[in-house]
Specification:
Layout: H1 9-23, H2 29-40, H3 45-66, H4 72-80
Helix pairs in contact: 1-3, 2-3, 3-4
Length: 82
Amino acid sequence: MRDRNDQNPRLGDEIRTVVERQLQQPDLEEVNHAVDRLMDEGNSREEAVDTVGAVLLEEMSEMMSEKDPFDRERYIERLQGL
């Protein structure tokens, strides 16, 4: 995420950590599928994780602005749309 002019590199690192944890969770296999698909398209693993992180950040931003709980289905749809 630093490569994308992230004004807060620490936030980028934290988002990457969350994505890495999601990759270890069997109930979020869609995250693995998204990373694998992005790598199959020629992205490095780091780029793929950063792309998934951007989707996660978008979801988190929406949660905060709308004051809604995490919407797993919407997150998965966004991942599938990558």
